[in-house]
Amino acid sequence: MVADEHFVVRIPEGAPLDATAPLLCAGITVYSPLRFYGLDKPGMHVGVVGLGGLGHVAVKFAKAMGVKVTVISTSPSKKSEAVERLGADSFLVSRDQDEMQAAMGTMDGIIDTVSAVHPLMPLIGLLKSQGKLVLLGAPEKPLELPAFPLLTGRKIVGGSLIGGLKETQEMIDFAAKHNIRADIEVIPADYVNTAMERLAKADVRYRFVIDVANTMKSTP
């Protein structure tokens, strides 16, 4: 394949292709808003809502930037994964009112990766004055956004989708420097249908990667 150099991302030597590939989507999707919204300063406190394909790399990038990270999830069972394996500093169960109340007004920003319909009011409450809630998920139905909590704390709700080529290269270089990789499960091409069924059940940690090269080699 021949491509214009302006549209090619260079993968640093030593970076594994399989675990780096998902960063070209999930990685830049979380890296870009951390940079753009200024949530990348050491010592800041950032929440990450949802511990899935986007959330797990958001934790890794934010920690590499020197940020204090709290994972916010509806699933208490994900606490050990978030704190012990991914290195988050703390964990909040969003359905636990006592935990959420104790964390009110403590975060500089929140990266919300959830695509399901969910209440924003509790998340806005976690923000400090002038805090920023950044939406990366796209729920099928509109989310309810209360105005008054935004007014009283001069808080911001924003969004982000992906990033340009320059920033994508910056993200890949940053990931290589800090040994950031997506958590993946490598599968052969003929496993795709099963993978799609598992994906519908959220049964993947956290990205499927198709081994195209070896699949092609095994084809008679």
Description:
With 220 residues, this protein is an alpha/beta fold. The protein folds into two domains: 16-178, NAD(P)-binding Rossmann-like Domain (Rossmann fold, 3-Layer(aba) Sandwich); 183-219, no CATH class. Helix content is 36%, strand content 19%. The protein has ten helices and eight strands. It has helices at 17-20, 26-36, 53-64, 79-85, 97-102, 121-126, 148-153, 165-177, 192-200, 212-217; strands spanning 45-49, 68-73, 90-93, 107-112, 127-135, 156-159, 184-187, 207-210. Helix 2 (26-36) packs across helix 3 and helix 2 (26-36) crosses helix 8 (165-177). It is globular and about 60 Å long. The chain starts with 16 loop residues before the first helix and ends with a helix. GO terms for molecular function: cinnamyl-alcohol dehydrogenase activity; metal ion binding. Keywords: Lignin biosynthesis, Metal-binding, NADP, Oxidoreductase, Zinc. Pathway: Aromatic compound metabolism; phenylpropanoid biosynthesis. Pfam families: ADH_zinc_N. Belongs to the zinc-containing alcohol dehydrogenase family.
